[in-house]
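On to my pick:
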Amino acid sequence: MFISLNWLKDFVKIPSSITSEELGLRLTMYTVEIDGVEKQADKFRNIIVGKILEIKKHPNADRLQIAKIDVGKERMMDVVCGASNIEIGQMVPVAIMGAKLPNGLEINETEIRGVKSCGMICAEDELELGDDHSGIIVLEKDAKIGQNLGEFLKLNDTIFEVDNKSITNRPDLWGHYGMAREISAFLKVELKKLKVGLKCLQKITDKKINIKIEKPELCKRYMAIEMSGIEIAPSPKWMQKRLIAVGMKPINNIVDITNFVMLELGQPLHAFDKNLVDKIVVRQAKKGETIETLDKEKKELDKDILVIANSKKPLAVAGVIGGIDSGITEKTDSIIIESANFDFLTIRKASQKIGTRTESSMRFEKGFDPNLCEIAIARAVELTKQICPQAKIASDLADKKQFKKDKKIIELDLEWLNKKIGDNISEKKIVKILTSLGFKIKKDQKNILAVEIPSWRAGRDITIPEDLVEEIVRIYGYDNLELNMPMAEIKSSVIHKEQILEQKIKNILIGSPILSEVYNYSFVGEEQLAKLGIGFSNYIKLANPISNLQTMLRQNLTVNLLENIKINQAKFNEIRLFEIGSVYFSEDGDIYKDSKNRKKLPREEKILGIVLVGGKNNSLFKEMKGIVEYLAENFDLEINFKQAKNIKDWEDEKFASLIKIGKTEIGSINILKTAAAKKIGIKKEVVFAEIILKNFFSEIEKTVSKKYKPREKYPSVVRDLAFVIDVKMSYSEIREEILEFNKEIRNVELFDEFVNGKLGDNKKSLAFHIVYQAGRTLISKEVDNLQKKLVNHLRDKFKAEIRDF
């Protein structure tokens, strides 16, 4: 997009001390990226005024002529020309060697049909001064020979080339007035207010324009007014110069007015020939419909393309380009001016589908302010009356609105803002910056401002307090922020005991047990759990899962470890894995979500998970117990196992065991049921264990806090007892009961397990060493009595009988 400096000066006074280059730099620093700053006359460098002195026919071409041209400083040059309108004595624009035309054509000495040509006499379209290519431009007689064309045309403007990408989110900047508003803010100069408004369109006639909008959600606002007494002619020179300066070719007074208003205010307009429009219908195109556009191309339409139609056919592709059937021609004497606001996505898709991108569509794609429609149509009417004095308003102003003018207010905490910025900007300065950009400020409470967003920024641009931070900082100036190096004090990282213990556990497990560590996502899927028969109604669901197979936070490590086995079982006969990771539960944990301690995060637990598959021996379950015992021994802890009662559907109830240290339960061991393994695609036996690290660490802490205990002064008494019990009963239950029976029983050790038909059906024998110890010397009779009571107690509780063979 191109911006004219002279046009900007209509709205804002730019200090003479600021050069064009400096203004371009400031625009880049404060608002938009400026790709280039160019004096308008520079476009016509080496294009000068010449006088045709002589014309003769080309010896080798009937349609070509050779013109001898005086280009000043006693220089004459021959130019081969094919234009039919050249005459002796004409003052013409001549591109001499070294010139580069606006369309990119470079001029060099060349030979045309055997005749040397030292330049080029230019047509209107070649210099982008219009569309005419029927002949060369003939300048006024008062033109001076050798004068630079830009100087002759009084092209004293400076043009800023704006990078369109930098204003994609700023629809308010797609016109000169929006840019002037920004300049007034960062230069701290007054912005001239727009004086146009709907008052100039006061009702003159009761005549109404018949307008129908079929889908209001695709057209938030549609305004239209009829004007009669129109005489089509070239637009005034001042308007043409403005349009040419920013790369727009003049066409005629009415089309130029609509383009002028668009470039000035940012709102695209369209003018229809009233005689060709019986009614206006804003609708989606019908299947098979076509339209011939103003660029004389036939476009196929479909239901996704919004059109402006009459009672019979489409007249324009809404927001993109008009149709040739309703366009302004030399015969037009009455017009309808349209000022509308269309759905930005619909316009973007339509532009892509028909392969046409215009100045109009580029603006509609950004989604601008519907309130701008009324200012733009008023400005267009004002200019039409100015340029066509005989023009009159011939209808009531039609205004179909489908939007609300709600005030959008954002609360801005000044303390938060300065903390976010990293500097201290005063409240007075903040208010001044926001006011200069069109925001309205109301003091809500101490250090908090209620900021009302202006309509031209309230679409998708300014929506949250962080957007206001950006507005304030860019106008305040990034270079004005105090430069402070962040404090980067280097300290040794705090290592928690838990981290040290976790690392020690890892080192132990990758040692003699020869396990491999894995890291899995903390997520599981409903399908995984359903195959294992695990209910997931109390699982925490993810708001934005990375896939439909990972939709919830896990509550154990085994499910994902089983997935590891499934993936690797075809490659390895033996798989030995472990993972230390977090699991999550729906109830509240101990950590608060924020500093205000209003709500807690879900409970989180660190778990050690181990899985074994295959191996050299057939007893994986015993091997897993050995690994757990080995791990505990490394921390001077003694493990015991107890039959588990709460068995999950996917666990083998014969082997389900709890892992205990003393009376503390720290985890469990089990075998995956064959049926469950088949459901998830595992073909081998799997043993798994999970240890709750919090409980494990608490037991480790107890061993650390142990104090020296002197050896017993008195001797112990060891007795052996063998009990016949039910085969389903675990030794750990018997052992715990014996230890708890009397304080003088200090230790119990299983040394034999015996199964034989002589014992009876479903019976087994467990033999224990029982150590008796007291703070005195025990005599045999005391031990005998105590042991007799123990036997009776076990008989009553477990139906345990003394084995007598």
In short: Residues 591 and 603 are 8 Å apart (CA to CA). DSSP finds 20 helices and 38 strands in the chain. The mean pLDDT is 90.
